Amino acid sequence: MKRSVYSLVLMDDVIRAVDEQAYRLGTSRSNLINQILAERLSCVTPEMRMRDIFAYVEELIGGAMQVQQQRSASLLTMRTALEYKYRPTISYKVELERAPDKYLGTLKVQIRTQSEALIKLFNSFFLYRVQTESPRLAAMGYDYPDWELASGSFTRKLLNAGEVTDEQAGEAIGRYISDLDLSVKTFFADPHGFGSTAPELEKRYGQMLKSFVV
User: Fold this and answer.
1) What is 123-152 written as a DSSP string?
2) 46-209 classified as CATH 1.10.287
3) pLDDT in tens, 124-137
4) Is 158 within 8 Å of 214 (Cβ atoms)?
């Protein structure tokens, strides 16, 4: 969305109030004023679009996970516990692009643990997941999105499948995270027996792709 520079003359009290609110929201003075004016004049801003997308994501999976409060409109973080020793926590963080092009945004999945064995399991699962997703996306004409796997942290770009509404984008992201979370939890519930349950999960993922590519 194109931006230009303009000069405004505002009261000092107004600027102080704007700065305080901008600090609380984790944004800039200019961005907050832009949002206030856009809402007043019924213009759609990137922040409004991102809030709408996240509202649809939360509607789909918010009840199954703990949604964390964020200072930025572009971020959504959800946490859940795994059925494994000591019930380690896993988080899903989505950061949306202000102006989506090839990607809608980025998904980062992290496990909170000091256990090297658990981190090794986490990394092996996500290598399997990339190998599962890649050929299915390729068959639909999509290159696998940029991704990175570190120690207990997996980052993957979210594909922009074209002209989609906020509701469609939110549903695609929500469905993908729900499918991924089910697969993660199934794996950690029984890592050694996962080979017998994986085909059904892969079939489920393939069915999801018929409606949602992300």
Assistant:
1) HHHHHHHHHHHHHHHHHTT-PPPPEEEETT
2) no
3) 999 999 999 999 99
4) yes
141 Ramachandran zone, left/alpha/beta (phi>0; psi -120 to 50) = left
Joined tokens for residue 111: 């496990």
* Residue among 116, 132, 115, 150 at smallest CA distance from 194: 132
Domain ranges of the chain: 8-43, 46-209
CA 51 to chain centre: 12
CA-to-CA distance for 92 and 95, rounded, in angstroms?
10
- Neighbour count for residue 107 (Cβ, 10 Å): 21
Residue partners of 155: CB distance under 8 A and separation at least 6: 106, 107, 108, 109, 147, 148, 149
Q: Contact, 105 vs 165, CB < 8 A? A: no
> 10 Å Cβ neighbour count for 117?
9
Identify whether the C-beta of residue 105 lies closer than 8 Å to the C-beta of residue 94.
Answer: yes
Q: Give the torsion sign (CA, 155, 77, 202, 87).
A: positive
**DSSP string across 78-121:** EEEE-SSTT--EEEEEEEE-SS-SSEEEEEEEEEE---HHHHHH
Q: What angle do CA 78, 187, 108 make, to 5 degrees?
A: 35
pLDDT in tens, 41-89: 666 688 888 989 999 999 988 788 999 877 788 999 999 999 877 789 9
